[in-house]
UniProtKB/TrEMBL annotation:
It is found in: Cell membrane. The lineage of its organism: Eukaryota, Metazoa, Chordata, Craniata, Vertebrata. The chain crosses the membrane at residues 128-153, 159-182, 203-227, 247-266, 301-323, 329-351. Its main location: membrane. SUPFAM superfamilies: Family A G protein-coupled receptor-like. PROSITE patterns: G_PROTEIN_RECEP_F1_1 (PS00237), G_PROTEIN_RECEP_F1_2 (PS50262). Residues 109-349 form the G-protein coupled receptors family 1 profile domain. One of its GO terms (molecular function) is G protein-coupled receptor activity. This is G-protein coupled receptors family 1 profile domain-containing protein.
Length: 382
């Protein structure tokens, strides 16, 4: 038995909707449809009079929503096929919410570090200045993520978008460069232990800060100054409005700095092992004690470098191989772990430091616990 099917196609706004009426229930659905013609502005008659194009251009999303709600409430087994669906205006991407939340955590956590270092006169050594630079860069990165979310959904303009993207690029670049500067400082403090606390070290530290913030600021200004893909979408990278060449330069620079950090941390590891062995000989420690101390130092260095690579390497590699045609979910999935590095940095570089712990306890409680005050620094604390 051949079953006849009557197909009626209607166009509402940006939706294409097909309704199939089975032969057995044809009259019932048509009767239901005619009783609800006011929901779709009597599309049968308008299409018959040749005004389909006018309906396509003039129909509103509210009418589409009302018609869809009527279909859902009808309780009948109507077969509907939607060939193209455009998200309703005002919808928020859940990935953007996660990034904004991450930015909020980053800002709060690093603000504590910045306030602690700024408030404590004892934290003025080069090492603490560099840790403060790292915290400030991560703080600006968190503010940039929050501002990017706010401007994307509240103030939709190209100028605001370029400024927020530039802020995020500059702050994350300064964060990575600060990590590189901290690595150099740690290497110098171990390799030139006798002359480290000299004026030359202070001068060199401030030169590094000027250079890293200057380069990072230039990288952040590039999108604002015209190096963007707003006029030519074919040149866009996975992060609009940054160009493919811009992202490639950033990615290659990251790989270069990661290789330098790896080399420096290998040298630091060798120095730590040698120092631990010398201390063990001077104090007549057992071999097992020397092994435990050395293992702690190597583990600490492995955690520092491994965390940095795990957070940034996926996003860096993805930026090199992908372009704007790739699904945005891959960009979000690799960018989000990169932001987690700014959450982890205060834990690794600031809150583990004894002097910062003392300053933080003084600010919060006005006292220092005995276990922190009497704890000695070991070679594994690198």
């Amino acid at each position: 038995m051949v079953r006849l099917v009557t197909v009626n196609t209607f166009a509402i706004g940006s939706f294409q909707i097909e309704i199939d009426f089975e032969d057995r229930r044809d009259s019932k659905y048509k009767e239901r449809w005619c009783s609800n013609k006011e929901h779709v502005w009597d599309l049968h008659q308008r299409r018959a009079s040749g005004q389909e194009e006018k309906i396509m251009n003039g129909a509103s999303q509210n009418t589409s929503y009302e018609y869809g709600r009527w279909l859902a409430q009808s309780g009948e087994n109507t077969s509907a096929a939607v060939s193209s669906v455009v998200p309703l205006a005002g919808s928020v991407n859940p990935w953007d919410i996660v990034l904004c939340t991450s930015g909020t955590v980053i800002s709060c956590e690093n603000a504590v570090v910045v306030v602690t270092i700024f408030h404590s006169p004892s934290l003025r050594a080069p090492m603490f200045v560099l840790i403060g630079s790292l915290a400030l860069a991560d703080l600006l990165a968190g503010v940039g993520l929050i501002a990017n979310f706010a401007f994307a959904y509240l103030l939709q303009s190209e100028a605001a978008r370029l400024v927020t993207v530039g802020l995020v690029v500059a702050s994350f670049s300064a964060s990575i460069c600060s990590l590189m500067a901290i690595t150099i400082d740690r290497y110098l403090s171990l390799y030139y232990a006798l002359t480290y606390n000299s004026e030359r070290t202070v001068t060199f530290t401030y030169i590094m800060l000027v250079v890293l913030w200057g380069v990072s600021s230039c990288l952040g200004f590039l999108p604002v100054l015209g190096w963007n893909c707003l006029r030519d979408e074919s040149t866009c990278s996975v992060i609009k409005p940054l160009t493919k060449n811009n992202v490639a330069v950033l990615s290659v620079s990251f790989l270069f700095m990661f290789a330098m950090m790896l080399q420096l941390y290998i040298q630091i590891c060798k120095i730590v092992m040698r120092h631990a062995h010398q201390i063990a000989l001077q104090h007549h420690f057992l071999a097992t004690s020397h092994y435990v101390t050395t293992r702690k130092g190597v583990s600490t260095l492995a955690i520092i470098l491994g965390t940095f690579a795990a957070c940034w390497m996926p996003f860096t590699v993805y930026c090199l191989i992908a372009d704007y045609t790739y699904p945005s979910i891959y960009t979000y999935a690799t960018l989000l772990p990169a932001t987690y590095n700014s959450i982890i940095n205060p834990v690794i570089y600031a809150f583990r430091n004894q002097e910062i712990q003392k300053a933080l306890w003084l600010i919060c409680c006005g006292c220092i616990p005995a276990n922190i005050l009497l704890r000695a620094r070991s070679p594994s604390d690198v």
